Amino acid sequence: MIGQSLNSKPTAISSPVLSVGRLTRTYAGADRPAVDNVSFALERGECLGVVGESGCGKSTLSRCLLRIEDADSGSIVLGGQDIARLNARKLRAHRRSIQIVFQNPSAALNPKLKIADSLIDPYEHLARGAQLKHFNYTSRKAYIRQLLEAVELPAELANRYPHELSGGQRQRVTIARAIGIEPDVVVLDEPTASLDVISQGAVLDLLTGLRTSLGLSYLFISHDLAAVHRMSQQIMVMREGRIVDRFRAEDLMAEGRHPYTKELISIF
Length: 268
Ligand SMILES: Nc1ncnc2c1ncn2[C@@H]1O[C@H](COP(=O)(O)OP(=O)(O)OP(=O)(O)O)[C@@H](O)[C@H]1O
What we know:
Elements: E1 18-25, E2 35-42, E3 47-51, H1 58-65, E4 73-78, E5 81-82, H2 88-91, E6 98-101, H3 105-108, H4 115-127, H5 140-150, H6 167-179, E7 185-189, H7 197-214, E8 217-222, H8 225-231, E9 234-239, E10 242-248, H9 259-266
Helix pairs in contact: 4-6, 6-7
Adenosine-5'-triphosphate (ATP) is lined by residues 27, 30, 34, 52, 54-60, 223.
Keywords: ATP-binding, Nucleotide-binding
Organism: Saccharibacillus sacchari
Protein name: Dipeptide/oligopeptide/nickel ABC transporter ATP-binding protein
């Protein structure tokens, strides 16, 4: 099922899978932008971590990237096209390319749908008939079984409702939903914040395994520097809507870190 051919590290010469330029979003009545002139490039197959304290603009950034809300200005280049200004009809073609996993899996899953129905939904709306590289859609049942297996859940959970799963199992279902249509980019917005410490580690390890085996690229957004460091190849530090520091993960403790990054290091 899941191909292992993409297990090797991506080469540095590949062009970014997602490029964001000078993205800015100011809420009505606010005295400063929630997202202020943010630019970055996400390399294919990598995880780019965004760390910052509560209120720094992380969730606003992720909602703008998904076009759940619109930025005031700036570009979001995905698959070679700037999707920041596409109208709903044109945006539809790109919906499959970028998916999100939210903090709270209970809110992300429809309580009235069985797990199988929740899992099939993105495929039916965004990927029906598409050629998938890693999951084979031979039948609805076989596809759902592959998705559950990919996130290490037993097949029999397919017939349950969300309230009949643990929080960790529910988050694995939302991850399966996001990856099942094989997007280029997955935005992980505090994906483990609602889980206990043991489940957090297991879900982070699962996400890293999926990134390498499926060749996914992640934007991993969290207030937790330790988790961001564990997951990411590149790290950006966000404060009051701005990116104040960026570096490769191995340079976290290097000379020249921004004073605010040092503050975050001192409490992690
Ligand atoms: N819908 C909204 N309307 C008005 N202001 C908002 C809205 N959403 C967020 N904000 C404000 O924008 C700023 C950034 O909020 P955002 O939720 O993006 O931060 P965050 O880093 O994700 O915080 P947290 O980690 O607590 O979720 C905050 O000052 C917040 O009060």
